[in-house]
Amino acid sequence: MLQVKAVASNVRALDRARLAACSVDSDWPAAEGVVLLLQTLADAGSIRSLENRQGREVALYRGDRFVGVLAHRRSSTSEYGEVPPGFGPGAPRELDLLSHGGVVGRGLSIPPARAAGGFTRLRVLGALVHQGRALRLRDLCARPPAPGPGPGPDAPQRSRQPAVPTLLVCGSAAEVGKTTTCAALIRALKRRGLVVGAAKLTGTGRLRDILAMRDAGADHALDFPDLGLATTYTAAAPVLEAAREILGRLDASGCQVVVAELGGDIIEANADALLADPRIAGRCSAIVHVAGDVVGILGAAALYRRFGLRQPIQPTLPRGRNPLGTVERLRGFGWDALDVLDAAACDAYVERLLAVGVAE
After folding, report:
1. Is 108 a domain residue?
2. Is 54 in the same domain as 183?
3. Percentage, residues of the chain above pLDDT 70
4. Is 132 helix (H, G, I), strand (E, B) or coil?
5. Which residues have C-beta within 8 Å of that of residue 226, sequence separation ≥ 6?
6. I want to staple 315 with a disulfide (CB 3.0 to 4.6 A). Which of 82, 167, 269, 297 is the partner?
7. Which residue segment(s) compose the domain that 131 sits in?
């Protein structure tokens, strides 16, 4: 079997048996979703640890080998990079680490706070090859999303499965507390005895978010790497298909309500395409919006209406802001903020939702 320090979490579907059956081809295609064997070139860089397929952070040092995936990441708050257009003969076989989850590509920009050390540079040892072809992330998934905007091959069966009411948790930026909010809502729903599904529908695919939702009590949890997408910084059609498939699987699992997070903000990583999609919007019972300040809440409300959404919007209390000042400002616009760190407040919010039939 190939000797590696870790299989990155975005390639979590690659088990030991499949890895043992793989070889490495140094003549690899520069295509989105290709699974690569990589080696770190230095001890310095903007990302110095890798989240492995169990969700553990593993420190990276010069010479470490790991399995990652080639994909785009066009984040406004973290590393920004892309799948290179291709490598000609004799071109350097080097890439950059774009996320802790093992997304790699050609790095283009780093946030100033971490830019001094530059990108974490990687040597591409080759693509993992299984049964004679370069392995892609979608090959590891039992039922990958089909290309195109239409429903997947199981759409006739899914059309008979009633859509489960869904709470969308969205935000004005990354790292503002969306996953914390999901966990608080899941806990409140579980205290009511409901079977709860959880999903991460857009972003970069960190396993830690799904694990946090499971820790909070989610009975079933899925995200887009489970459907063969390394990130949702790609074309809209496969992202929509993956989101529909994730929600369809949760419907079929017996969940009574779903809490679904959109990573990053609502205008990146195809979050806007999902919000504007009638099939996803139609099953959304409410939107919980997480922002860093009051202006972020008010601006997002206008965007939701622009996307055609008319569901009730519940802003949360911005983390680290003065609570009284925030509450007073929001009330001036007719809003009340939900403190997701207050279990009683979350219970009361869930109770109001149940009273209008969000979960039967």
Report:
1. yes
2. no
3. 91
4. coil
5. 13, 141, 246
6. 297
7. 6-140
Q: List the CATH number of the domain containing 270.
A: 3.40.50.300
pTM above the 0.85 mark?
A: yes
Mean pLDDT calculated for residue range 337-344: 97
Does residue 163 sit in the same domain as residue 300? Answer: yes
- Let me know: does 82 contact 72? Beta carbons within 8 Å: yes
Helix, strand, or coil (residue 66): strand
Judge if 58 and 185 occupy the same domain: no
- 22 sits in the region (left: phi over 0; alpha: psi -120 to 50; else beta) called beta
Cβ atoms of 64 and 52 within 8 Å: the answer is no
Taking residues 115-124, report their average pLDDT: 94
The answer to whether 98 and 105 are in contact (CB under 8 A) is yes
- The pLDDT value recorded for residue 359 is 52
| CA distances for 284 relative to 165, 184, 245, 287, angstroms | 6, 18, 15, 7
- Assess whether 165 and 72 both reside in one domain: no
Residue 316 φ/ψ, nearest 5 degrees: -100, 165
pLDDT for 150 beyond 50: no
Q: pLDDT tens digits, residue range 154-180?
A: 444 444 456 899 999 999 999 999 999
Alpha helix locations (H) across the chain?
16-20, 155-159, 178-191, 207-215, 236-252, 271-275, 278-281, 294-306, 323-331, 343-355
CA dist 80 and 99 (Å) reads: 9
Q: In the predicted model, what is the mean pLDDT of the chain?
A: 91
| Residue labelled with tokens 């590891």 | 140
Domain termination site, one of 140, 168, 186: 140
Question: Does 149 reside within a domain?
Answer: no
Please write the tens of the pLDDT for every residue from 58-78: 999 999 999 999 999 999 999
Q: What integer pLDDT is reported at residue 178 of this predicted model?
A: 97
Q: Which of these three, 115, 140, 165, is where a domain ends?
A: 140
Region 186-205 average pLDDT? 97
Q: Which amino acid is at 9?
A: S
Q: Is residue 43 part of a domain?
A: yes
Number of domains in the chain: 2
